[in-house]
Write a structure and sequence with these properties.
Elements: E1 10-13, H1 17-28, E2 34-37, E3 54-56, H2 62-66, E4 69-72, H3 81-88, E5 92-94, H4 96-101, E6 108-112, H5 117-130, E7 135-139, H6 145-148, E8 155-159, H7 162-165, E9 175-178, H8 193-201, E10 209-213, E11 228-233, E12 239-244, E13 247-252, E14 255-259, H9 268-284, H10 288-296, E15 306-311, E16 314-318, H11 325-333, E17 341-346, H12 358-363, E18 366-371, H13 375-379, E19 386-388, H14 392-402, E20 408-411, H15 424-438
Parallel strand pairs: 1-2, 1-4, 2-3, 4-5, 6-8, 6-9, 7-8, 9-10, 10-11, 11-12, 16-20, 17-18, 17-20, 18-19
Antiparallel strand pairs: 12-13, 13-14, 15-16
Helix pairs in contact: 5-9, 5-10, 9-10, 14-15
Main location: cytoplasm
Subcellular location: Cytoplasm
EC number: 6.3.2.9
Amino acid sequence: MSYDYFGKKILILGMGLTGISCLNFFLKKGIKPKIIDESKHPINLIKIPKKIKYSLGNLEHQWILESDLIIISPGISSFRPILIKARLLGIEIISDIELFAREVSFPIIAITGTNGKTTVATMITKIAKESGYKASLGGNIGFPVLKMLDKKTDLYIIELSSFQLENTFTLKSKIAVILNISEDHINRYPQGFQQYKKTKTSIYNQAEICIVNSNDKLNHLVFNDNKKWISFGTSKSDYYISRKNHETILVYKSKKILNTNEILLSGYHNYNNILVSIAISDAMQFPRNHVINTLKNFSNLPHRCQIIKSKKGIVWINDSKSTNVNSTKVALNSIKKTGKIRLLLGGDSKSANFNILKIYFENLNIKIYCFGKDGIKLSKICKKKSIYVENLKKAMILISKQVEPGDTVLLSPGCSSLDQFSNFEERGNLFIKLIKEIT
């Protein structure tokens, strides 16, 4: 179905990567939207053509209430009073994903989840290419979906955040997957965790094949007959992880698929990511030999439990992509060494409940260096093992004086980086730079 945008008053909110991709999408159609950014000096201002009207420094603008269609960037909350008012006036508010969904004719694999999205989306893209597809990867991963419309493609793999799903209504994916759901971004949802959960599960609404984590209590889902449902996670699922005789094996309906000894990745969370990738690949009917070969040789992506250095018995691990409490828990579980864990924790906690880590901290040989906006608050979870340090650099200087052979230094902040960095990559890159200086 082709949508006609001519003659409509169109407004784009946000001048980040998403906003600019939306602007270019309309300009190619010969349509001139208006655009607003909250920053007074957005870095992409130079990319705005002279003929485009823009406003800076404040979102509360009359243009919002005069529009027919608003495209909202994921960084802007859908629950702003002025946007609620606009909806009540009948103004359509959508995401760039919704614009994309209206244009595409090739199959889509849509992937969301609190953790592991980028890893699984990258695995699937590699497998699809090995299987002969011209696959394109985009979305929350940092490559806007609308830019994929310009590529020669026969399969789209899109990583989706809950923020993108909030304003997406007609996404008809061939396969939709939720990897896991745990507390994250609760500060963005007025009704808390249940609202976040409901937003995530909207990915299944118009999907053909739905892949579901049996460990997530998604009781409100209706497992109806007009969709195909595939499960993973527990031993009662279609796909699961079996531990027998000191071996960890990936299984499909009692049949062995892969022994984890044969793969480069380690840690239960990674085995789960591989398991889901196999489930998606089987649903797509990718040749199993291409699937297994790709997964055996897949190594950790940057900033995701990435070992930066192992020297003098000290291991330095960069898990800067850890932006929620559950990802820190996963990282702590993946450490096998017997020495002290020196954990760098901190940033903007997004109102999440970090007390779930208390029992972990109490049972581990650990020292916690809490930094950033919520560092003081985080240091109170386990006072006797924690210290507050203003920022990452000061924490690393302190660690360099205290670290001993056998220790693991783990940057797994569990928080958003935006209080002190422009993104998690910048935070991880500073950590890597500091390691080089220290060692």
